[in-house]
């Protein structure tokens, strides 16, 4: 039986994700492996539910094996987020398809634009850097550069609204497959419901994860009940009841402490841009949350999501030394959850690769000193997440088999 891979966050898992899983099973009839962000996500935030809970929900909804995407990748741009996920899927040596959502008319457009960007990479980057120097954000500069170079060569029909988050991520997936000379076949699936960034939770269409999170923080659970599965609903209600959702006030206090006392050199932090820390220092005492801080200092140059990614890289001390550690080839995988099929997939991975497979604390003993150091970095990020969320549960590794 063939195997499909998904790179996901499930933040939180909703019926749009369930639709994708059902579509894979119906059209491809494969096993499913999800490479899932851990406790921190690509928007520059703490995950609304911890990684073990989200993995369990994913397995309950049809995913056979959940492998953690290291926090270094999950807090980076679309390009590096995709690179981390693809590198793991390639290393498994058992994945046949990469399945991902897109938001345009034709799935072929994603493939063609990916090839176009690779072919004209140098010209696009030159124009992109020029636009950034004019004070435009990376996202706007990126879109403008692609559209202008495409006009020059008349390769494709690209609409102005094409470059939205889901499509950009899809393009990066395909580009990374091509660049890595992967044997994995891309399988785009048209996304249903509201746009990825849409925060309106009063819609009758499938809500985005952004809208669901907003409804939760505004205590409007009834608005989301029809758009998420019962497991997710119950876990979210439980988190609110036990006050273990990510606590923005705690996170802001820890950021203040780091700025005042630790005084970490920001220039060594991944995603640092000149002037960004001074802006944070100037405004940090007039806000009540990281979200409010990012909204206050965002500009044409500094988009909110880039500010938030920098803040979490700063809080987790993701510096150039850690970047160098993660630039090395994947040597082990951390398993968060699996079912009986997933157990068989793990055996197949073990037979077809040299990867160490971490499923318990005991299994970390097989890691090299370099790998143990990397695993310890991951565990430290877990401890910080628990501090951000008032979560009193134990921190040790708890991979599980779901019956």
UniProtKB/TrEMBL annotation:
Supply one GO BP term: tRNA modification
Q: Which GO terms describe its cellular component?
A: cytoplasm
Q: Where in the cell is it found?
A: Cytoplasm
Reading the lineage from the top rank, the first entry is Bacteria
Question: What's its job?
Answer: Catalyzes the formation of N(4)-acetylcytidine (ac(4)C) at the wobble position of elongator tRNA(Met), using acetate and ATP as substrates. First activates an acetate ion to form acetyladenylate (Ac-AMP) and then transfers the acetyl group to tRNA to form ac(4)C34.
The residues that hold ATP are 7-20, 101, 166, 191
Broad class of the protein's primary localization: cytoplasm
Q: What class of enzyme is it?
A: ligase
Q: Which PANTHER family match?
A: TRNA(MET) CYTIDINE ACETATE LIGASE
Q: What is its EC number?
A: 6.3.4.-
Q: Which UniProt keywords apply?
A: ATP-binding, Cytoplasm, Ligase, Nucleotide-binding, RNA-binding, tRNA processing, tRNA-binding
For this protein, the record's Pfam families field holds: HIGH_NTase1
The family classification in the record reads:
Belongs to the TmcAL family.
- UniProt lists the gene as tmcAL
The reaction(s) this protein catalyses: cytidine(34) in elongator tRNA(Met) + acetate + ATP = N(4)-acetylcytidine(34) in elongator tRNA(Met) + AMP + diphosphate
Q: What is the originating organism of this protein?
A: Parvimonas micra
Query: Which GO terms of the molecular function aspect are on file?
Result: ATP binding; ligase activity, forming carbon-nitrogen bonds; tRNA binding
Q: What is this protein called?
A: tRNA(Met) cytidine acetate ligase
